[in-house]
Amino acid sequence: MRARPRPATEAFGEAWERLFEPAVAHRGLWSPDGAPENSLAAFQAACAHGYAIELDVQLTADNHVVVFHDDHLERLTGVPGRLRDHTAADLGELKLSGTDETIPTLADALTLIGHRAMVYIELKTPFGEVGELEKQVSEILLDHNGPTAVIGFNPYSHAWFAEHQPQILRGLDSYGWADEGARKLAPELRKSLANLEQIEIARPDFLALGLDMLPSARADQLRAKGMPVIAWTVRSAEQWDGVRDHCDNLIFEGFAA
Prior knowledge:
TIM Barrel; GP_PDE_dom; alpha/beta; Glycerophosphoryl diester phosphodiesterase
């Protein structure tokens, strides 16, 4: 890893310093036979082991911000239907992966974590949209005293934060856009996303790039100019060894980073 660049503004404070270490536990420190992903137990475990935390957020039917990755509930709760069609109170009654853990609100997760870990909050805002989720998350973060960053694939979401809450650290997510879901997008859009052409819109402070984009000559150029790069999702020490010279940190799961 190279020497750390300095941010354009000191407003980020500790969040900027923690961008480079420690490693980031993907959806908390979870395991198939232990704490479920994106659960308070997974966040507690990450804090106990000294890791930073990545988590996913979206809005409920009554406009509360909850921590959950999928659009649909069934994989983790066994309940059919979309998360967005349920209230926060209803979701709080559902059990995650057969455990006693429930779907937490972002506010509850940050209260548990406190100042113990850097938190990367991935906004599950559809591409091209922006609005209530950004506003709700920004208000929650203003009341949190620990280091945080917002991340996500939607450049317009980042642009909203750059305009309205520039003191909140922002990281633009991207990957190769060659998977089955991405093939539903127009080829021109896939190409622009994979080539990081959304940076001009997003104005991010760092990049979070999928392993299928690394190593990347374009990312190396941006990094040389002071744009940090975090790799995701790294699932083995061998994968990390293959890209670590082109990155500043990693989002990991399934092994001890």
